[in-house]
Amino acid sequence: MSINAIAPTDTRAFFRPVVHHLVDLLRRLPADAWDRPTTAGAWRVRDIVAHLLDTSLRRLSFQRDRHTLPPPHPISSEADFVRFINTLNAEWISASRRISGPVMTSLYAAAGEELAEFFERLPLDAPALFPVSWAGDDGDVGWLDIGRELTEQWHHQMQIRDAVGAAPLPDPAWHRAVLLIAIRGLPHAYRGVAAASGTAVVVEIVGAAGGTFSLRRDGSRWHIFSGDAGDASARAILSDDSAWRLLFNGLAGDEMSTRVQVHGDADLVTPLLAARSVVV
Question: What is the mean pLDDT of residues 256-261?
């Protein structure tokens, strides 16, 4: 058994097919489906679509077009950033309720096409628009910022598909890319966990999009690797479906015990169960 560094994940080619699948789904939705509840808190289907339109327009405006939006208050901490993002989201969702589903679909189709084209041309090592807050000190790299944007598009579309009874997105390569981006947040999730240097926690994700990953404490920090550390102090086993739901805030607390098998030191798995690869 061995572990290796995880190479940067290139998600640029996945935006176009993921966007096209959502546009195709939205164009077939009956009117009442737009108001169905989702697992995204209080957001209904139409609210998630509005959010995806908003984030696409923001990315194009801020990064491609260099438009600036001064925050309403200074951003000097992660909490300030979360408050800023939540304010932007709430303002847009509120305004979007005056827009019909077909109009929103057309707007998203146009914005999604431009977003895909922008990312396909963007160098993988381009500077991050914003550091990925849930990845902590490791989040200020361009490819991870791009990947974070794909995780938004993918996991919110999956929430819509759950809500309307549609089949999941079909390509496990997209799902795997989302998980490879999301697990980059695990060292940050473990930042407060004290352990002896060399302590390892193995996360085994079962399924076509899965893989085995090891968190290891080296000196004063935790790092994430591909592969099985072998002599791990704790091991968590879960399906690829459960993994994305966990990391994107889609599992209720009472679901954890049935969806995540824990072996070894259960306390070392607790931070994994609380890890979230979204701004919350």
Answer: 94
